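TOPIC: backbone geometry
CONTENTS: sequence, structure tokens:
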Amino acid sequence: MGSSLGLRTGEFPDSTIMILKLVSAAVKREPGLQGSFQNEFVGLEAAVKDRQRFDTGWAYFSFDDESGKLKDKARALSQGSLLGMSS
């Protein structure tokens, strides 16, 4: 319910959690078939909205390390590290 409301209005309620699974893409071409498909796992990220816990209302987490291995726990990313992500 929260995500559909947020998609329509642009306002997500507290306790919203959005998960992003990052994978590389590969292309497959066979006679009569062609397209892209998920290849290797690259990373796992999450956005969590909680106005009581986070100053800006949202916190962003990365659950993989530099080598791409999953971590058991993640800490909220700093604002400085987020600035380099925007394009």
